[in-house]
Each structure stands twice: as C-alpha cells, then as structure tokens.
C-alpha cells in the first residue's frame, strides 16, 4: 500500500503562516521605527513586541539589516501605491495635471509618513546595502511612475524638453520604450522636489504657507522641465491628507 503525497494545501498553509509572521514582524518593526527612528529598531525590541524570542526572528530575517531592508522596500512600495492610486482615481488627467498631482501626492505622503519617507530617500544605515537587489527593484518600481508620466507627456506634446547634449542614461527595464530623455528629466525633477519636501519634512522650512509655496515651486520645476501648459488645479488639494 502506497502513501499518497501531502496535498498542495499543506505547503500553502505553511506559506500563509510564514507570510503572516513576516507581516507581524514588519508591523512591529515599523512601530519601533515610528517611535524610535530607524536606528532605534532592534531585533530584541521587535521580538518583545510580538512575544517572540529574538532568535525566532532569524527564521524570517537573516539579520537586522535584512529587516531594515524589508522596511525600506515596503516604504518605497507604499509611496508608489499612493501615486498609482491617485492616477487611478483621476484617469482623465492630462499629462500636465498628472505630473502636478503626483508632486502633491509625494509631499502629502511624506508628511504623513515621515519615518518611512526617511527610508525612501537613500538611507545610510548599518547593515543596509544600497545596492541590494530588492532595494534596487523597489526603487525602479517607484521611479517608473514619474518616468512614465514624463514619457507620456513628451509623446503627447505637453512637455517639450529643451535641447540638451545626449547622455548615456539607462532606461527602466519595467518601462519598455521609455526614452533616456524621459528618464533624465524625471530623475532631475524628482530630485528637486525631494529636496523641497525634505526641507519641510525634517524641519528647516515650516509654516502654514508651505503648502502654497510648495505648489508654486512644483510649477516652477515643471516649467524648467518643459511643460508648457497649466495643470487643472480644480480638483487638487495642496495640504497633506
């Protein structure tokens, strides 16, 4: 009499259990992050929060750096989700309005997720390799949103880039057909916006007028990129949600 192999459901149930544990660990680590900052996230503190032994965490994450890396990936994916949800909620936006709306969403998300935002903007923390494949893939997923918006704007004529010396710039592997020009413009503009957002998120620039000032600055950045039109601001909100 032969023994039947275990049904696929057994493995599936085991994987679901593991996935649930990973989510619980990351949720506890994120709570530690919000309370103590990235350098205050410890394996011992996370284990204590979920009633697990510190050694038990190593069944799910190789080390402290792997746990922080997972939080960095989640933070980048969270911002990307906020951007894509805004696009889905406003499918009729022209490229000019889509870009402007995205710039406001980035600021709003950063103000609401200060600690996660600090992980998005290239953290230099012990144990984190900035070139880790998971981090690089998450960064590519995130950047694909503004890059594809710029590429669409160039294609529609809403954005006319100034003549520039051609440079060898890689395209996004996840964005087939996106030009090096779109990539360069998007990265430059996002860098400028991140600078403005960071000065506000981390304190040097404060005050109730910041929302209007940021909106005006975003429009200036758009002019520098080559956007000729004006975004439809009727449905846009400048303040953080």
Short description:
This protein is mainly alpha-helical. Helices cover 63% and strands 0% of the residues. Keywords: DNA-binding, Transcription, Transcription regulation.
Can you offer a commentary on this structure?
It is elongated and about 60 Å long. The chain folds into two domains: 1-61, Arc Repressor Mutant, subunit A, CATH 1.10.10; 74-225, Tetracycline Repressor, domain 2, CATH 1.10.357.10. The chain is built from nine helices and no strands. The longest helix has 29 residues, at 8-36. The termini are far apart. 63% of the residues lie in helices and 0% in strands. Residues 42-61 bind DNA. Residues 19-79 form the HTH tetR-type domain. Keywords: DNA-binding, Transcription, Transcription regulation.
List keywords for this structure.
single chain; 241 residues; mainly alpha; Arc Repressor Mutant, subunit A; Tetracycline Repressor, domain 2; elongated; transcription regulation; HTH_TetR; MT1864/Rv1816-like_C; TetR/AcrR family transcriptional regulator; DNA-binding
Helix and strand topology:
Elements: H1 8-36, H2 43-49, H3 54-57, H4 64-89, H5 95-112, H6 114-120, H7 133-156, H8 180-201, H9 210-225
Uncertain segments: none
Residues in helix, %:
55-70%
Name the average pLDDT: 85
- Report the CATH superfamily of the largest domain: Tetracycline Repressor, domain 2
- Number of continuous helical runs: 9
Please indicate the percent range of residues in DSSP E strands (runs of 2 or more): under 5%
User: How many domain units?
Assistant: 2
Overall SS class: mainly alpha
What is the approximate shape?
elongated
For the biggest sheet, the summary is:
none
Q: What is the terminal separation in angstroms?
A: 65 Å
Reading off the top of the CATH hierarchy, the class of the largest domain is best stated as Mainly Alpha
